[in-house]
Known about the structure:
The complex is a heterotrimer.
Chain A (H helix, E strand, L loop, with lengths): L20 H32 L8 H13 L7 H34 L1 H16 L6 H8 L3 H25 L3 H9 L4 H35 L8 H10 L3 H29 L1 H9 L1
Helix pairs in contact in A: 2-10, 3-4, 3-6, 3-8, 3-9, 4-6, 5-6, 6-8, 8-10, 9-10
Chain B lengths: L17 E12 L6 E12 L3 E5 L5 H9 L7 E6 L2 E2 L7 E4 L3 H4 L6 H6 L9 H14 L15 H14 L4 E5 L7 H17 L3 E6 L2 H7 L2 E5 L6 E6 L10 H4 L1 H15 L6
Parallel strand pairs in B: 3-8, 3-9, 6-7, 7-8
Antiparallel strand pairs in B: 1-2, 1-4, 4-5, 9-10
Helix pairs in contact in B: 4-5, 7-9
Chain C lengths: L2 H39 L11 H13 L1 H34 L1 H14 L8 H8 L3 H25 L3 H9 L4 H38 L6 H11 L2 H33 L3 H6 L1
Helix pairs in contact in C: 2-10, 3-4, 3-6, 3-8, 3-9, 5-6, 6-8, 7-8, 8-9, 8-10, 9-10
Amino acid sequence: MTTTTPTPTPDATASPRGSAPHRGGRRALVAVLYFMVPLAVVVALWQGAAVTSISPFFPPPLKIGANLWELLLGRGQLVTDAFTGDVLPTVGRTALGFAIGSAWGVLIGTAMGLSRGTRETATPIVEFLRSIPATATLPLFILLLGGGDDMRIAFIAYGVSWFVLINTASGVGTIHKTLIDLGRVFRVSPARRLFAIVLPAAMPKIFAGLRIASTAALLLAIVSEFMLATNGIGFLLIQAQGRFQLLDMWSWMLLLAILGLLINVLLDLAERRLLSWHRFSRAKI
Amino acid sequence: MSDPRIPARNAARSEWAEAVVVDHVSHVYGSGSTAHHAIDDLAFTVHAGEFVSIVGPSGAGKTTLLRTLAGLLSPTSGGVLIDGQRITGVPEGMAMVFQDYSRSLLPWLSVERNVAFPLAGTSSSRQERQAIVADSLEAVGLKGFEKRYPWQLSGGMQQRASIARALAYRPQLLLMDEPFASVDAQTREGLEDLVLSIRDRYDMTILFVTHDIDESVYLADRVLVLSRPPAHLVEDIKIDLPSPRDQISTREHADFVHLRGHVARLIHGGDRSR
Amino acid sequence: MDTVSMATAALARPRRRRRIALWRGLAGLAGLVIVLEIISRAGIVNRAFLPPFSTVVVEAVQLWGDPVFRADVGSTLLTYLLGMLIAAAIAVPLGILFGLFAPVYRAASALVELMRPIPPVALVPLVLLVLGSGLEMKLAIAVFAAVWPIMFNTLYGVHDVDPYAKEMARSFGVSAFGVIRRVVIPSAAPFVMTGVRIASSISLIVVITVELIAGGAQGLGAFISRERAYGDAEAYLAVLAATVTAGILGLLINLAIGAVERRFFGWDATAREGA
């Protein structure tokens, strides 16, 4: 019997995605222009209106920006006390609460996703607990844990965990049947099945949950600093409000918007690295 | 004279002539008034090294049978013996190629990592594994595509990768579940010949489920024709066509035309009798 | 076996499945309640931290008898409803506009992307100064929070309309505006509904939070904040009961919206999987 090796016929182009560099560059430029021009127009209008009229409530945007710069970077020092004493603690609480809450959410969500019995038993409990507005539990946390940082981090973690839990449960629970069969047919060990098949396949949904959770973490951190706080961006906001310092208030809100944007950008980058396969596969379909 | 073909991993065990015995297997989904009898009292034997096609009309019977053979499904009555042992769950030395290739390759792994996936649990050394992967990819004609990702491959190539993965496992028994159903006709011809070349190159028993009558006759040593659910064995046909098979000359052969017509009549004729 | 019997078999399974799920869920809830009751009464967890479940329930019922509490809840619900209506009135037309005309959206997207990440609650200090601590303040923030999910989901829904459906309508001589009215809007409606559902839970949370942190406001959150200030065990019980009530409210609203979705938008897969 003769052995025949078939000649490889790459029946479709296997070149990686991406258009010619020139076209891509121009498209990027147009996108940036679309973004910057209207923004510049609005800022200019606002600046003009604020300078001509005298409403204390809406200071000119450029002044807000300059004030923020001064508040954070100061004159003479590298960074101000406000930066180290308030901004950093807020960021730290956000990050820690997010990490703990996400880990917990992934753990419970995976357990719920893997077993239908667990899922059905736990779902009403989860649905009820998550209906309680997380922010409304702040007084409870304060009464239980006092007014310190561990209370705040626990509070943030609690609020964040629900988003991650639900998305993880959904991602793990809706794995395509073929992947499950794959694990069984090739006699893959249960541990390997979980870490090499189930979790990577669920990663897109888990990541979506992480994105929502990250925004929520910042929000919860700020809220936790509205009550019984001694530092933090939330604390600064309340302080500025109490002293009728509108310019400072607007500056801190600008900072919050920037922080929110930064978090989004960071997660976008992470997604590009971890989930590029998902983007490309879906684009093909 | 020694067999020039590449042996299966558990070659010492496959001295049994009867590789697979289907022992009066039935399977019913659900119960009571809403029960669905998928397969009913199926019994046949597959010998080591045979290429058997299982063909039948569209419906739940063929897939149910294949899943039962794979140990993914427990039949409601009867059992399957592989190498003389009744299976309870997925047996060793068996690999499967799934119909939905876009879902069966892991999209976050490169082609070579996908092919190496089933090997991670085995005791081979890294070099051995690399050699096996390289050999499997070459056997399916994907040499040079190791670092690509599934989304970069066409449907036919993805299915080749899927086959390479099954080969890397060095199974004694290869189950293929309508693997070329979602592929265009010309690609299918290439893939059919690929399966034949693999059959020559490796020492294994192949069970090939398909709804394509021509394909079933072209590839196999034997064709098992199933009826509509509750599926029973309509006929067990020996295919005595000359080897090596060729897409054009074999399909012109008088015996081929006669055999495929016979199978077609068995399927389209419907079964009024039981 | 014929196709009809096969189909019946396939349909019966989900019903049985749902009943099993229902029993399991009830068992889970009952189990949790029993555990909470026992560990509290037996003193395993300090009763000050975790009052028995029955005590909390009794307290919650008693709260309902208090007219001040009822007025607070009413204020919260009113703010929530008004906020949703206003937000929808703003966000749906905007979403349709942005969805149909990409250049308009691209021009506006800079502003949108900058405003979006601002946590609505962070606006409280500012809005307090501008609008005082009454209904308008709460409403402004609630509307700001609810507008985004509704708008983006509407936009997404308009984008997602099957182009072949639109072409088909045009080929039958339907005018451009008619296409919008008869194809785009019905197609996008389930997405709008999803946006409303998301906005609803966000909005309720925001309203209660705003009440919580803004001094002098009225509402469920304000009630909780006032009680917390007392700091004693009795107040803790009240806070706990009120928080649980907030959760039940949220759950009921969610269920109601889910039921509406299934009733009117059951034909669309996204509505079915969302609830």
